[in-house]
Automatic annotation (TrEMBL):
<dbReference type="Pfam" id="PF21943">
    <property type="entry name" value="TetR_C_46"/>
</dbReference>
<feature type="domain" description="HTH tetR-type">
    <location>
        <begin position="59"/>
        <end position="119"/>
    </location>
</feature>
<feature type="DNA-binding region" description="H-T-H motif">
    <location>
        <begin position="82"/>
        <end position="101"/>
    </location>
</feature>
<protein>
    <submittedName>
        <fullName>Putative TetR family transcriptional regulator</fullName>
    </submittedName>
</protein>
<keyword id="KW-0238">DNA-binding</keyword>
<keyword id="KW-0805">Transcription regulation</keyword>
<dbReference type="Pfam" id="PF00440">
    <property type="entry name" value="TetR_N"/>
</dbReference>
<dbReference type="InterPro" id="IPR054129">
    <property type="entry name" value="DesT_TetR_C"/>
</dbReference>
<dbReference type="InterPro" id="IPR050692">
    <property type="entry name" value="HTH_transcr_repressor_FabR"/>
</dbReference>
<dbReference type="GO" id="GO:0003677">
    <property type="term" value="F:DNA binding"/>
</dbReference>
<dbReference type="InterPro" id="IPR001647">
    <property type="entry name" value="HTH_TetR"/>
</dbReference>
<dbReference type="InterPro" id="IPR009057">
    <property type="entry name" value="Homeodomain-like_sf"/>
</dbReference>
<keyword id="KW-0804">Transcription</keyword>
<feature type="region of interest" description="Disordered">
    <location>
        <begin position="1"/>
        <end position="60"/>
    </location>
</feature>
<feature type="compositionally biased region" description="Basic and acidic residues">
    <location>
        <begin position="35"/>
        <end position="58"/>
    </location>
</feature>
Length: 260
């Protein structure tokens, strides 16, 4: 009896010891899941940071390609510029160019869209205040906004003025498209003015196109003043102001076809 009792107690002790050992050597399921989740989170964070870094680098390289092109076209036509020149100026190999643009024509169209988008936004903000006061835009305000933008982005405007009659068809079409969009936005703003409420859409688009044409022509003359002397700059601004005054005065006397 004593031997059997001792054997039983020893067996129970071994089972207890075995249980204690297992409990101390194996991680709890909840702890393992937490460790795994933390590891996954770190991997995801590193992956996102790497992806963000790649996106930033790609954006910087893309902008470097655009900036390099604007520098090159300040003295030359866009058609004369090679992909290799642009890539070298941006610090990349020529084959890497295609990660950002499908072709030089694609890059040129992007330059047009970016440049005109800035101009349209700037002039739109100026017109918004004028429309809120329900009055025709003042000539001096419109011209001041335009030429301030030209001074800030001179290279972009030189590109637009030169390439509207340049040798790359895709770029010419892009400039014409943006110019028409510019005129349509101006026509929409003019239609909101009480003095022009009776005008039909065709007449509004006609006068908006005339205003845009005068503005872009004045920009070309303004940029050309670098070669003709800075004194010409004031003459250009005075002349475009008078031209727009004539347009605005004529708008006050104009009658649409159905009103004649």
């Amino acid at each position: 009896m004593t031997r059997t009792g001792n054997s039983t107690r020893a067996s129970r002790g071994r089972r207890a010891d075995s249980g204690d050992g297992d409990g101390g050597g194996t991680s709890r399921p909840g702890s393992a899941r937490a460790d795994s989740a933390r590891a996954d989170s770190k991997r995801a964070g590193a992956k996102n940071a790497d992806a963000e870094s790649r996106a930033d680098r790609k954006s910087r390289t893309r902008q470097a390609l655009l900036d390099t092109t604007l520098d090159l076209v300040s003295e030359r036509s866009f058609a004369s510029i090679s992909l290799r020149e642009v890539a070298r100026g941006a610090g990349i190999v020529p084959t890497a160019f295609y990660r950002h643009f499908a072709s030089m024509e694609d890059l040129g169209v992007t330059l047009v869209e970016d440049s005109m988008r800035v101009l349209r936004r700037t002039l739109r903000e100026g017109r918004r205040d004028l429309a809120a006061r329900q009055a025709l835009p003042t000539v001096r305000t419109s011209i001041a906004i335009l030429f301030n933008q030209v001074r800030e982005d001179e290279s972009a405007f030189r590109f637009l003025i030169r390439e509207q009659h340049g040798g790359v068809a895709e770029v010419r079409r892009a400039i014409d498209t943006e110019r028409r969009l510019f005129a349509k936005e101006l026509a929409i703003d003019l239609a909101r003015l009480p003095d022009l409420s009776a005008w039909d859409a065709e007449d509004l688009e006609m006068v908006a196109d005339l205003i845009v044409t005068i503005m872009l022509t004045s920009v070309a003359e303004y940029l050309d003043s670098d070669y003709r002397g800075r004194g010409v700059e004031r003459e250009v601004i005075d002349r475009v102001e008078r031209q727009l005054v004539l347009v605005f005065l004529g708008m006050g006397r104009w009658r649409s076809r159905h009103d004649r």
